[in-house]
Design brief:
single chain; 167 residues; alpha+beta; 5-stranded antiparallel sheet; 4 helices; 25% strand
Length: 167
Amino acid sequence: MVYNAEENHCFGMILAINNYRLFPTGEPVLKFAERANNKPEALRAWFYSNDNWGQEFVYPKTRATQLAETTNAPVLSTEAKPAETPEELIEAPVAAVAPEKEQVEIAEATAPAEASSAPALAIEAAAEPAPAPELPKTASPVSLIALVGASALVLGGLLRRFPKRVY
């Protein structure tokens, strides 16, 4: 749900399903569906930084059919009405609509951009996974030196207490 700053007015509910990527990046990633030059860019999916899981939009059936014809690619759709409660939207079945106005497998509509017939534009800060940050050096050898010194003192005390015996 999208609210105003005071959270007293709901602008709309957005239905999305989980989308997965293999390599997380250090920056958020926005994937756009290919559109005609005179059309605005359409956000297809987004991923949070350092996360493999993101969200992909699901449209009402009539709008999904229009988008599938325009983009010539499968689009996720649902029969749920926008005015329904969030609980009903969560339980609504999701399908994919092909450009030929027939239902296809959801896997075809959510396939990675490289594998689908309609390419998607991705804005990514880095193509490679973000390197793990190097941990700061927080330990010092002082405690180890103190432990070795204390052990030597204890050992010296034990040797003094028990004199050498000749057999």
